[in-house]
Batch of 2 targets.
Target 1
Amino acid sequence: MVDDRTLNSLRKGVVEGVTLALVSDSEVYGRDLAARLVDLGLISSAGTMYPVLGRLREAGKVETTWEESLKGPPRRYYRLTTDGRDALESFAQGWEIISGGVRSVLDGRVNQSDVPDEGRKK
Amino acid sequence: MSMNVDDGSVERVYLDQIERAVAARDAEAAHQIRAEIAAHIAESRSDAEQRGEVTDIRDIIAEIGDPLVVAAEVPKKRYVTGPRPSSIGLFTQWDPMTYVWAVCLLIAIGSAFYFTGWALGLVMVWTSSLWTTRIKIWASALVPGVFLLAFLWFDFIFVAGYVVPVIVAVLLYFASSPVKARRRTLHG
């Protein structure tokens, strides 16, 4: 059972990067984006996506477009900017390093003998 | 799109709660996030109508989440005016609220020391972005203005020397952007 604090810390580290990845191929409708992030377990509720998008927009990584709908109000779509694409690239590289390291430890691939023991008393 | 009065008031109360909760962390972000969540609600209704479903505002609110949880995603900003209270190197790292208090104290009691504190306070006011130009002009002109009147026509040097600087200090306190931001947050 994962405790909320651990889960929130982990989410905070990756939610911006994953949001960038989700809007990287095409414009994504705001509600679909929120539903996708909730399904992935990266946000606890749809509303918590807006502060994340606000930060990304402020940093110039994501932009909002409005499209008229046949019925109802205009709809918001989100898409990646050039800066956002660079940030996504950087996130993907960082994630490779972090996830690989964590996975190797959790899978028990690193043996105790591989860990430097310079600090250990002899 | 149909919406009954009860739904409208539930939505308004919820959006007010969102705005207040976010403003407590970052006053500048509050309005934007409220607008986006209001748009989310309108889109939810419209999507449901297109599917021929009846929507309940409470279900949409449950999907969006607790205002405090939404606000917790907003990084806490101390003041809306930025981290540098003054362009003078000595003061750039000061907390804006501490800077406001220092200026107010210098202006209020500085006249007791041949107006050196008052003059230093004014220098701090003019090199800061925490006050508007209009307030800076008023703060600078009030004491000399009242002194001039006192010398020319009236005998109220005490008022000009001691009371007016205190009035100016109070004016500067309430007109400073950190205090205005705090008041906006407290009163929603």
Target 2
Amino acid sequence: MESAFTDGRIDVDALVRSVASDEHGAICTFVGTARRHSDGKEVRELRYEAYVPMAEASIADIVAAARERWPQARVAARHRLGVCPLGEVSVAVVAAAPHRDEAFAACRFVIDTLKADAPIWKQEVFRDGTAWVGDPRSFRAGPAAGRSP
Amino acid sequence: MLLFAGLRERAGRDELVLDGLPAGATVEQALAQARARVPGLDTVAFVVARNRRLLPGADGRRAALAEGDELALLPPVSGG
């Protein structure tokens, strides 16, 4: 299976083509891009890192869960690592299904679960410093009792 | 022990090689050594992964390590 990660630009069209077929009349695409403002501060660029082998497995699990839930859907996800300039794509999820309801639902499930569970981290780079972003809902499907401190 | 994001920056490295752990040492003992070597480790929240699986809470931390286990400390994530 192709890696879920790339160090360069994400080819969204290629990702769409990878799930398209003449049995799937609906394709839903979610594209996340690097935003200039974060809590009122001006961001210069984003930097991403991942625990790649675990994140690859995590995304494969999420894709498998989507297929189980929407058996007719075909889904794929790609995430950028390293520097992501403003306005460029940091993540893309595509979901193809016979009809749009399943395509929207599968696409939403994959991006929401990826954001909560995949070991990927975003750093915002400002003019005067940097900050790691962390979602307090991280690993919500995992063992909360294992958290520290 | 692999470190990521804010923990990696705090430690100034992306991996700690734990040594001198006794045979049958637990995950908790490995964490104690990491805390001793990385001041302020616990100022960043994290979960522990063992061999790329999240540890199931306190029981997981009491489990004995095996030779070659890969431990990783994962701060709150922010993909997307």
